[in-house]
Specification:
There is one protein chain. The protein is built from 5 helices and 8 strands; from the N terminus they run αβββααβαβαβββ. The protein has an 8-stranded mixed beta sheet with strand order 3-2-1-4-5-7-6-8.
C-alpha cells in the first residue's frame, strides 16, 4: 500500500466516487410505500404497497388507476407516480395510517369542461385531467391540519376548500390558494 500523500488522495478519491455511484442505488431500494384510497363516489377502496424494491408495482398502479377513475363517465388515466409519492409523504407528515377519502382523482376533459362551465372554481386546464391532482380529506385529521401539512411539503399545488371539506394536492409547480367556492 502506498502511504504517500498522493496515494492517500487517490484512495480517498476512489472511495468518494464509489459512494457517489452507490448512493442513488441505495436510495432507490428504500422502504416500501403504501397507500389506502377510498373513492367516496363509487364506494371502492384500494389499499396496497405501490412501490417496493426500487420500483413502482405494476398491479398496484393499475388498481390505483381504477379507483381514481372519473366517477362521472368511468374513464381511466395513468396516475403520475409523483402524486402517489406526494400522498405517501403527506400521510407520513400527518403521522397517520388512515385512508384517504378521495373526492376527485382523474377527470376526463369532458367532465372537467362541464365542471368548469358550472363553477369558476374549476380550472380549465386542471391537472386532474393529467392524473396529476387529487382532492382529498383524511378521517381523524382536521382539514386545517391536512392543508398545513400539504403546504409544508412544498411539493406541488395545494388548494384549501373548507366549505367543501377537502384539500387539493397536485404534483405541478409549487403554489397554493385558499378556495372557498363550490367545486
Amino acid at each position: 500500500m502506498d502511504f504517500t500523500r498522493r496515494g492517500f488522495l487517490g484512495t480517498a478519491s476512489l472511495a468518494v466516487a464509489s459512494l457517489a455511484i452507490a448512493r442513488p442505488a441505495m436510495a432507490a431500494v428504500g422502504a416500501p410505500r403504501k397507500l389506502e384510497l377510498h373513492n367516496i363516489h363509487t364506494g371502492e377502496s384500494f389499499a396496497t404497497t405501490y412501490w417496493a424494491d426500487g420500483a413502482y408495482v405494476p398491479g398496484a398502479m393499475a388498481g390505483i388507476r381504477k379507483v381514481l377513475r372519473d366517477h362521472r363517465d368511468g374513464s381511466e388515466h395513468d396516475i403520475d407516480p409523483r402524486l402517489l409519492d406526494l400522498l405517501a409523504a403527506l400521510r407520513g407528515r400527518l403521522d397517520t395510517t388512515a385512508r384517504y377519502e378521495v373526492i376527485s382523482g382523474y377527470r376526463s376533459p369532458h367532465s372537467n369542461g362541464l365542471m368548469h362551465k358550472a363553477s369558476s372554481g374549476v380550472a380549465k386546464r386542471s391537472l386532474h385531467m393529467e392524473g396529476r391532482a387529487i382532492d382529498i380529506r383524511v378521517p381523524g385529521r382536521d382539514l386545517k391540519l391536512v392543508h398545513k401539512a400539504a403546504l409544508a411539503l412544498k411539493s406541488g399545488g395545494v388548494g384549501y376548500y373548507p366549505k367543501n371539506d377537502f384539500v387539493h394536492v397536485d404534483c405541478g409547480k409549487v403554489r397554493h390558494w385558499g378556495g372557498t367556492r363550490d367545486v
